[in-house]
Amino acid sequence: MNMKFFYSLFFLTIVALTHSAFAQATYFTDILGKEFKQATIVQPGDYEGSVTCTIIRKTTPEKSTKAVLYVHGFNDYFFQEEMAERFLKEGYNFYAVDLRKYGRSWLAHQKFNNVRDLSEYFADIDTTLSIIHNEGNTKVLLMGHSLGGLVVSMYADANSGKERFDAVLLNSPMFALEFKSGLKKTALPLMIKRAEKHPETLIDLGLNPLYGESLHKDFHGEWSYSLGFKPLIAPPVNFGWLRAVNIGQEKLAQGLQINKPVLVLHAAKSIDEKKWSDAMFSGDAILNVSEVARQAQNIVGQYSIQSVPGGMHDLVLSRKPVREEVYSTIFNWAKRAIK
Fold first, then answer.
1. Whose CA is closest to 191, among 176, 204, 181?
2. SS3 (DSSP) at 154
3. What are the backbone dihedrals phi and psi of residue 85, each rounded to the nearest 5 degrees, phi first?
4. Residues in contact with 11: Cβ distance below 8 Å, sequence separation at least 6, in sequence order
5. pLDDT tens digits, residue range 27-69?
6. Which residues have a Cβ under 8 Å from the Cβ of 83 and sit 6 or more positions away?
7. Which residues, 6 or more positions from 245, have their beta carbon under 8 angstroms from its beta carbon?
8. Other CB atoms within 10 Å distance of the CB of residue 76
9. How far is CA 212 from the centre of its chain?
10. By the 8 A CB rule, do 258 and 308 touch?
11. Of 102, 61, 113, 109, nearest in space to 78 by CA
12. Which of the residue ranges 20-29, 61-70, 76-85, 252-261 would you say has the lowest mean pLDDT?
């Protein structure tokens, strides 16, 4: 047998087996319980070694062919049970993915949130969408929060013309970085340049630590989640992360082509409290919402941008009256967007 032909045949066989494996998942009981299931997917290794992502699933009581895939943000993982239940009530099978190096997917040899290019996350989304379709879903809403919103937007652009989703929902997407006063203008270009040779150099973004307190039930919030997976104070990021996010935002500034309907939701105002007060419940403590709204206009396609009065950074974790409005907006839009 011609050896070149043999190696080509061997390679194609491996690809076929790999694709088949990606389209299947073996589920176990998730840490949330309550009929949530999780499946660990082994991905090709990277510069830190072995890599996994984790799919979390809960299906509707009655058979449905609609699904939503939720992609979390920075310093985050999927824990929003109420959000899942609302989608289930609307007839969507619920899926979430803990991206590589976050939450359920973090491995002991990895640094949390370590990334050199946001496209590294595309394989996790690809795999999950393959499984979603393989499990009988024909209509898919792709949803991203904060950093996940930027990743989802880039993914949608990269898959223009070959989409396996029918609409895109962005919850406070990280369309602009916020830094301590003056840092961005003076230091960002130098840090981006240094990231090319020294991606592991650490930097503190200076995100407001009161945001975590506004969420967690052990402090001022109403939500229960792992402070190991989502600490009150976000860990420092490295220059590689900074460069990856900056490149993503520059691509957005040049225009991202998204061929499916897009809904961008953000809080009506940003807040920057220095000490605890209930004002933390009234706005986005992480992003500059004016910049988010402005940059969202660089989406090329059918999009809608809406502000949410009283909304927090993660809009579905806002005070109950606000999040009821958020869900009403989402599902009214989805009925029109997903045919």
1. 204
2. helix
3. -65, -35
4. none
5. 999 999 999 999 999 999 999 999 999 999 999 999 999 999 9
6. 70, 316
7. 118, 147, 150, 174, 177
8. 23
9. 18
10. no
11. 102
12. 20-29
Helix 239-254 / helix 289-296 crossing angle, nearest 10 deg: 50
Angstrom distance (rounded) from CA 140 to CA 171 = 17
Euclidean distance between CA atoms 257 and 154, whole angstroms? 9
Which residue is associated with the tokens 């003076």?
A: 186
Tokens of residue 229, six digits:
């997976």
Range(s) of the domain holding residue 21: 3-337
Buried b (16+ CB within 10 A) or exposed e, 238-253: bbbbbbbbbbbbebbe
| Residues across the chain | 339
Count of structural domains, the chain? 1
Q: pLDDT digits over 191-203, tens only? A: 888 898 999 999 8
What CATH number did the domain enclosing 116 receive? 3.40.50.1820
Does the structure show a pLDDT above 50 at 249? yes
pTM over 0.90: yes
Distance CA 246, CA 154 (A): 12
Residues 259 and 261: their CA atoms lie apart, in Å, by: 7
CB 287 within 8 A of CB 178: yes
